[in-house]
Write a structure and sequence with these properties.
mainly alpha, transmembrane helix, membrane
């Protein structure tokens, strides 16, 4: 019992660490366009994002419940706390590596792949809740394509609305709109991404027989929201540089179109209780906006590297988590 309690405490610590890292790793995507167009300076942008992420994280719990029960059933998982700990270590490692190199990879893919990999290592492929797992994978795979189309359509709409306007004056005014879209983007990020850590902690509480339902306790919500808010306040300038400038040259109208379309998609996923990769959605929306503006204006070489990272994240994190579980079980 003492070992289970210690493991549960470690899971809570590592889950909050994951949320903290997610804050400066993924939240940079939410403010990247507004910073790159100088609608906001980095410091106030990060402060605003931290506050809006905190508020968003406290508002919803549906995604957290999906994470806690739809990948594997925590009530049936043997060595559940150890499995979850291995998954968190794997996801954190991947996040730190990709952050170091300035690659906007998916924390969601890393976490979900890691949970699946560690669980399979512990109990075989039969442990997966295939209906729930496939539903999550579908959301992760389809959402970037929806974002690409959404960004394209939103930018097309903006072009129609601004057709007879002075572009210089319009861009100057749209910078003010970007402050609002960046705030909305940060809020929706909190409603989806912060809940992943809440779901993980709830899984650990169930696995450690410290909770008998999949309800998300208030202290879990506050702790996860605080960790993400603090992580956001640290900032993620490397990711901002990649998302805000290396995919395409972003003007205020482009940034507003990308922010608005991606925020709508992320929030829709939250309402459907589906975890999506905010990184994928935002980057894809920017590509869609760039395509509507000028296909050659998108730096497809950079986009290709980002897409490759998206593809390899889930299987690599699953393998790493499986290995981490095997190492941990030697000592426990």
């Amino acid at each position: 019992m003492e070992t289970v309690l210690v493991l549960t405490i470690l899971v809570v610590i590592f889950a909050l660490a994951f949320d903290f890292i997610n804050g400066f790793h993924d939240t940079a995507n939410a403010i990247a366009t507004s910073v790159s167009t100088r609608a906001l300076k980095p410091r106030p942008a990060i402060l605003m994002a931290a506050i809006m992420n905190f508020v968003g994280a406290l508002t919803f719990t549906g995604v957290a419940k999906t994470i806690s029960k739809d990948i594997v059933d925590p009530f049936l998982l043997e060595n559940g706390s150890l499995v979850i700990l291995a998954a968190l270590i794997s996801a954190i490692l991947w996040n730190l590596i990709t952050w170091y190199f300035g690659i906007p990879s998916s924390s969601s893919h890393a976490l979900i792949g890691s949970i699946a990999g560690a669980a399979i290592s512990a109990a075989g492929f039969g442990v997966l809740n295939y209906s729930g797992f496939i539903k999550i994978l579908q959301a992760l795979l389809i959402s970037p394509f929806i974002a690409l189309i959404g960004g394209f359509l939103m930018m097309t709409l903006f072009k129609i609305l601004l057709k007879n306007r002075n572009l210089f004056k319009a861009n100057r005014r749209i910078r003010y709109l970007q402050i609002g879209t960046a705030a909305l983007q940060s809020f929706t990020h909190g409603t989806n991404d912060a809940q992943k850590a809440m779901g993980i902690i709830t899984m650990a509480l169930i696995a450690g027989n410290l909770q008998t339902t999949d309800d998300i306790q208030l202290w879990v919500r506050i702790a996860a929201a605080t960790a993400m808010g603090l992580g956001t306040s640290i900032g993620g300038y490397k990711i901002i540089k990649t998302v805000g400038g290396k995919i395409m040259k972003i003007r205020p109208v482009n940034g507003a179109a990308a922010d608005l379309s991606s925020a709508i998609i992320i929030f829709s996923a939250t309402l459907l209780h589906l975890p999506v990769s905010t990184t994928h959605v935002i980057s894809s929306a920017i590509m869609g906006v760039g395509t509507a503006q000028r296909v050659k204006g998108v730096k497809w070489g950079v986009a290709q590297k980002i897409v490759i990272t998206w593809i390899i994240t889930l299987p690599i994190s699953a393998i790493v988590a499986a290995l981490v579980y095997r190492i941990l079980i030697l000592f426990l």
